[in-house]
Each structure stands twice: as C-alpha cells, then as structure tokens.
Write a structure and sequence with these properties.
This protein is an alpha+beta fold. About 30% of the residues lie in helices and about 40% in strands. The chain has 3 helices and 5 strands, in the order αααβββββ.
Length: about 120
C-alpha cells in the first residue's frame, strides 16, 4: 500500500496534468522519463480533455510493483485511470514511479500517459 505522502504526490501530479501545467510537471519530475512536450503530446493525441478525478479515485491506486532500491529507498510503480470531460472515468491511464528518498520525501517520474491495457 502506498503511504499517504505518496498518495499526496500522485494528487499533485494529477492536478498539474489536469491544469495543463506540463512545464511545472517537468520541473517537478526533473524531466526524468517524459518531457513537458511529450506529456502534452500524449494528452493532445488522446483527443480528450482531462478533468479532476473524484477524491475516492485516489483510494484505490493500483500499485503494480513495490521495489527496494539502493540505500533502503522504497519505490512504487503506480497506475491511475484518468478522468475526462468526454468519458468520466477514462481508458486513459497515468503511470508513475514514486521513490521515497527520505522518510516522507518523494520523487516522482511520469512513466507514461496512455490507453490502459485491456484486461
């Protein structure tokens, strides 16, 4: 289970994405994995308008993998379905890697913004 500080980091990322603050999101993630241009392109290519998910969407984050990384840091791979004006709950998903670098201090990487794999 993702600690509350990690969930809060996911909320911040989703908020920036919904507002279209791709440059700020790139700064937050230090440009790891996806640049602002790549994130904007993924959202634009989807043809959808992102909206804020309901609060309970963050209660059931899919934690796909939990890793122990160097120095005792914990890393979580998280997937979150995004919400759009067109669909509500969307097939579009946000994939993140969150790493706890110090107690309660998290770094975030946006791994992808893409159609969720059909299960």
């Amino acid at each position: 289970m993702l600690p509350e500080e990690g969930v809060n980091a996911v909320r911040v990322v989703v908020g920036l994405l919904v507002r279209g603050d791709y440059e700020e999101l790139e700064t937050l993630t230090e440009g790891r994995r996806l640049s602002a241009v790549e994130m904007a392109g993924a959202v634009t290519a989807s043809g959808r308008d992102l909206i804020s998910p309901p609060d309970d969407a963050f209660a059931d984050l899919e934690v796909a993998e939990i890793e122990q990384v160097s120095g005792g840091e914990r890393a979580f791979r998280v997937a979150l379905p995004l919400w759009t004006a067109q669909e509500g709950l969307s097939a579009l998903a946000l994939r993140l890697t969150l790493t706890e670098v110090m107690d309660g201090v998290w770094t975030v990487e946006v791994d992808g913004i893409e159609e969720a794999a059909a299960g």
